[in-house]
Amino acid sequence: MADPRDVVDEIETLCRLNMSEHEAERLVGWIAWRTGRNQAMAGDADALTRLRHALVHWLDPHQRARLLGWMRVRLDRGDPLVPR
Q1: pTM for the complete prediction?
Q2: Helices then strands (H, E): number in the chain?
Q3: Which of 83, 73, 69 lies closest to 19, judged by CA?
Q4: What is the pLDDT of residues 27-39, one digit of tens each?
Q5: Which of 22, 10, 21, 17 is CA-nearest to residue 67?
Q6: Quick one: 38 exposed, middle or buried, by C-beta within 10 A (0-12, 13-18, 19+)?
Q7: Which pLDDT band, with edges at 50, 70 and 90, does 3 fall under?
Q8: CA-to-CA distance for 70 and 74, rounded, in angstroms?
Q9: C-alpha–C-alpha distance, residues 8 and 68, integer Å
Q10: Could you read off the pLDDT of 62-77 as tens digits, one per residue?
């Protein structure tokens, strides 16, 4: 079984390479909404640090794996990585 940190690292790398800081912040908001959390609970750091917090603490391994797969498909199609 893959180390859960590997999935988090891969998502973070995809985001770092393919999103603006604003888009990363929107992704934090989307994850907060989907998990019933307040976006402010991700802290007050930069967007990618906040995103990592959301990935590690708000999503379970299955949800992270599904998010990574969804992001890969969208990236391959040239679609934005931030859900609308």
Answers
A1: 0.87
A2: 4, 0
A3: 83
A4: 999 999 999 999 9
A5: 10
A6: exposed
A7: low
A8: 6
A9: 9
A10: 999 999 999 999 999 9
